[in-house]
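DM between two lab members

TW: hey, do you still have the ArsR family transcriptional regulator entry open?
JB: yeah, one sec
JB: this one, 124 aa:
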Amino acid sequence: MSNVKALPLLEPEAHEAVAPCCPPLTERPFTAEEAERTARMFKALGDPVRLRLFSAVASAEAGEACVCDISDVGVSQPTVSHHLKKLKEAGLLTSERRGTWVYYRVEPSVLAAMSKLLTTTATP
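TW: and the structure you got?
JB:
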């Protein structure tokens, strides 16, 4: 018997949560939908443990980190798993199981969206 499982494809609706959502804060006020999506992202990063985990994944060599290499953040393994799940639900991380371990990556559009959001628009 094989333990290989096919990963499901993301539905467009699920992928919308990670798409760059908003213009720079200084460009115009957010719509209600933009504010909701952005708040989810920042709420997930508002916890120091989650921020450390996100930073560990974002700065990992090869652009990905095994959960076995990033779990030393001062909390139990079940708590690390909970925080990683919250980061995934917010659209900040993706994961892939390889054998016993799970490898995490920063969702490609996230850092660009965060950078764009916090960029000041040029004034004429």
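TW: got it. The first helix runs from residue 12 to 15. The longest strand covers residues 93-98.
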